[in-house]
Design a protein that fits this description.
46% of the residues lie in helices and 0% in strands.
């Protein structure tokens, strides 16, 4: 019979902790590192300054958050950008299209 059962989560074995690609962890690590450097160098005097200093870690954390049907938010944003910037009019070029030309080969 040669029927093979392939588990739905076979790609999770290639991910770190079953959730993250190496690029995801590098991106998040960079955001956290920038936040730690800002925390060490800048004095927190207001709530707005605190939000600005914490924003690199918060933004990169949001981007690598896993969501269903996509890998993570970065993947969703990338797919959305590609959809919006690519051609939206799809021209049919099948076997039955005449491209506006008369069929002169047929006999009437």
């Amino acid at each position: 019979m040669n029927n093979y059962l392939i588990p739905a989560n076979t790609k999770k074995g290639n991910l770190i902790l079953g959730l993250f690609r190496p690029f995801d962890l590098i991106l998040f690590g960079t955001g956290v590192l920038i936040t730690v450097v800002f925390l060490a160098l800048v004095t927190l005097t207001s709530t707005l300054m605190t939000i600005i200093i914490l924003s690199p870690a918060l933004i990169t954390g949001f981007l690598v958050t896993p969501i269903p049907y996509y890998h993570n938010m970065l993947n969703v944003i990338t797919e959305l950008f590609e959809f919006l910037t690519n051609r939206q009019k799809y021209v049919w070029k099948g076997w039955c299209v005449t491209n506006g030309e008369e069929d002169t080969k047929s006999v009437h």
